[in-house]
Amino acid sequence: MANGEVTVALLGGGTVGAQVARIIVENADDLAARIGAPLRLTGVAVRDLQKDRPGIPADLLTSDAAGLAASGADVVVELLGGIEPARELVGLALDAGSSVVSANKALMAQFGGELHDKAEANGVDLFYEAAVAGAIPLLRPLGDSLAGDRISRVLGIVNGTTNFILTKMTEAGADYDTTLAQAQALGYAEADPTADVGGLDAAAKAAILASLAFHTRVSMADVHCEGITEVTSADVAAASDMGYVIKLLALADLSDDGTGVSVRVHPTMVAESHPLAAVREAFNAVFVEADAAGEVMFYGQGAGGEPTASAVLGDLVTAARHRVTGSLGAAASTYNEVAILPIDDAVTAYYVNLDVEDVPGVLAAIAQVFADNGVSIAGVRQDGKGEDARLVVRTHAAREGAMSATLAALRDMGTVREIVGAMRVIDTPGVVA
Ligand code: NAP
Ligand code: HSE
């Protein structure tokens, strides 16, 4: 700190950066009162200096991102997105003794360990509340408020774009491409929306959540990831007929013996009575199950410039207060180092929809395949008859590996004409059946 001010360098002036700059300028007096010293924006790094940027003072714009990152500002706020040059610039800032606030889930999910080590070595803060679920206070509650509890599962909707698309497909039978374009126009989607629809954005967030919840380092590569590109209108309609909605869920759960954690992202049939089923449009919601707290749910806006800026500002105020008082937030807690389980060891219930021959013995043979692979059936229903016969099988929770083997064996049966659909399912709040 110099001259009684907390200096702030902003890397990025796009959807989120522009809102952060605006709030710093518009709320200057309140922020100064909360921090104990005024904030002074020293620069905003962008690529294109000619672009019109209402709310950002023109004299602060620079294309020299590296110079700004290494300028020794009290706090450097990284809102560029992507891995490079964000990783290099955050490294420069930490080495220059600046605390860093970032909204970059991809960066933190892949290089969080390296950057936390650098922050610790330099005695500065590294905060990234906005990287997961936009405006929703989630990382600080996990890392601080629940720090005395034992978390067993984190389960939620953490990607606004896909939730927006699935909501429109469910409620209006909307066309996928039109809805994706709408999500992009509203500023929810990443620059490259394949990260949203392919599940990678949610996978990065799942890695960050699992690291905090289980005090272990979980990176992007540890997360099993399936997006929504294969979800069809027919899947959505079939789920609806059975009283479910399809959601892209991020899940991280501890094995029963506490020695392993499974982290995954996949479309899931969620019972309409489950609170997550009511999370519509681009909203996000995360359930946390902990021994003493029980079930805790966080809900709010997970994307968009202003909501995300709110979380960035929260981190900025905290980091700035620490500069004023000469203190530091807690370092990353990674003492636990539990094993990351392969997807085959995840445990989940399934709905399987089969197009079958309608002759005596078919149901018994199919049930035998489930039994041979150790998958317990919770219920079976036949729809239609003759050429139109369909069997819908609901399983109890089983190992994914056993379920994959079951599906492979069903595919080989002459009496099974087609596996029309197979999807994980949850019924009870916070419990994967
Ligand atoms: P964006 O609109 O694409 O803005 C990125 C900004 O960074 C732009 O101003 C761009 O400059 C600048 N930039 C990129 N590369 C640069 C470089 N090499 N040198 C200098 N400037 C560079 O992205 P955003 O939506 O604001 O997202 C920012 C971060 O927030 C990302 O990590 C994203 O994942 C995260 N986030 C976004 C949301 C959301 O809803 N948008 C929600 C949560 C988290 P130009 O303007 O000149 O192109
Ligand atoms: N593209 C992301 C989403 C933005 O759709 O949720 C927040 O990370």
Would you mind describing this structure in some detail?
- With 433 residues, the chain is an alpha/beta fold.
- It is built from 14 helices and 18 strands.
- The strands form 2 sheets. Strands 7, 8, 9, 10, 11, 12, 13, 14, 15, 16, 17 and 18 form a 12-stranded mixed sheet that branches. A 6-stranded parallel sheet has the order 3-2-1-4-5-6, with helices on both faces.
- The longest helix is centred in the last third of the chain and has 21 residues, at 305-325.
How is the topology of this model organized?
Layout: E1 6-11, H1 15-26, H2 28-35, E2 39-45, E3 61-62, H3 65-69, E4 75-78, H4 86-95, E5 99-102, H5 105-122, E6 126-127, H6 139-145, E7 151-157, H7 160-172, H8 176-185, H9 194-197, H10 200-214, E8 224-225, H11 233-241, E9 244-254, E10 260-271, E11 283-290, E12 294-301, H12 305-325, E13 339-340, E14 347-356, H13 362-372, E15 377-383, E16 390-395, E17 398-399, H14 400-411, E18 416-426
Parallel strand pairs: 1-2, 1-4, 2-3, 4-5, 5-6, 8-10, 10-13, 10-18
Antiparallel strand pairs: 7-9, 7-11, 9-10, 11-12, 14-16, 14-17, 14-18, 15-16
Helix pairs in contact: 1-12, 4-5, 5-10, 7-8, 13-14
In short:
36% of the residues lie in helices and 26% in strands.
Task: Fill in the keyword field for this structure.
433 residues, alpha/beta, twelve-stranded mixed β-sheet, 14 helices, 18 strands, elongated, binds NADP nicotinamide-adenine-dinucleotide phosphate, binds L-homoserine
